Amino acid sequence: MIADEFDAFFLDLDGVVYVGDEATPGTPQVLRELRRQGKELRFLTNNPTSQDDIVRRLRSLSIEASNEEVLTSGTAAATLLNERGLTRVWVLGHDDLKMALQTRGVTSCCKEDCQAVVVGWDDALTLSDIREAASAIARGALFVATNEDPTYPGPEGPLAAVGTVVNALVAGSGQRPISAGKPHRLMFDLARESLNRGKRAIVIGDTPEVDILGAHRAGLPALLMGDGPSFPYRRDFRNAEARIKSLQDLFDDSLSVGEWAVPTYAWPEKVEAGVAAVVLEGETVLLMRRRDNGLWGIPSGHIEPTETVEEAVFREVMEETGIEVTISGLIGVYSDPRSQVITYPDGQVRHFITTCFLCRPSGGTLQQTGPETVDAGFFPLSSLPEPLMAMHPRWLADGLAELRQPFIR
Ligand SMILES: [Mg+2]
What we know:
Number of helices: 12
Bound molecules: magnesium ion
Number of domains: 3
Helix content: 25-40%
CATH topology of the largest domain: Nucleoside Triphosphate Pyrophosphohydrolase
CATH class of the largest domain: Alpha Beta
CATH superfamily of the largest domain: Nucleoside Triphosphate Pyrophosphohydrolase
Strand content: 25-35%
Radius of gyration: 25 Å
Low-confidence stretches: none
Largest sheet: 9 strands, mixed
């Protein structure tokens, strides 16, 4: 049974422990039994409120809990601000969030000289607040979202939630927020750090895109409670290791999670098409040093909307090096997430499907610097510059293999 496989259970609240004002069936008894067996419990909620507030609510449902066992997106936001030494913030949120921040030394203060804008829920929010907050972010205040949930369940269907305000500020400021809540990993990391080393923990949630994705980003296995959707590919981070109907199923002898392997790559929000070009001239290859990460690589980049792969190759090599090329062959198509998932310096993660071509120079003039390039040149194949982008030695080797068939990796 699943209860025997783990020492700690990280529970989502709304939809798992309670729905509206009622505990889910059997939950108070199940949690009491887990405690009796010495299991640790943590309660994780995207509700940007205080720990006191959640403990009060749980006790009203006959569920015992202490402040230390509760992680809200408000307390996680406070941790995030503490780590950066920020103490004066402008809170777009109600008093419970301000309290959660205040207990950790973060003061909700005036708009003008705030170090960060913290977005929670505030029913009295106006467009004027959004305009001023977007300006503060554009001026350099850290943009912190307690969560980015687009909606929450209402009696007659989904209702707009914190994510809608966050999106308004993204549009108004041109910046992306740092997010404290699920599906980002901070709350899960904090929950795990609160356990003794070596304890086996599992996450239980009812929303694949929030609870299950967040658990897997943090390297934790997860159970989906209820009838949430599953996703077509098994490696998708939003797919749980097992499903349960209620917490009572933790004691079902026929259910188990088994071994779960932590993925070696980050979760990409998008799959994108790219091209790369191995441009050979005699015994030399064209390489450029990227401005964004300082690494050497073969010219490569996105395919733009309406562009053909051939046009993309020509444009990318030209933009990055000033060299015109002609395609002489297809080297291969590369999609393995272990090498093709890229995390950018701003935290965005992309999974590239890259088509790699063998090319020869046909004109142009080498330009060693440009908007994306800090250096460029033709290098002897026997002595390539360091450091090289992770996947590029593979592409180079494949390009020189002189096989008739393209590689599909
Ligand atoms: Mg939930």
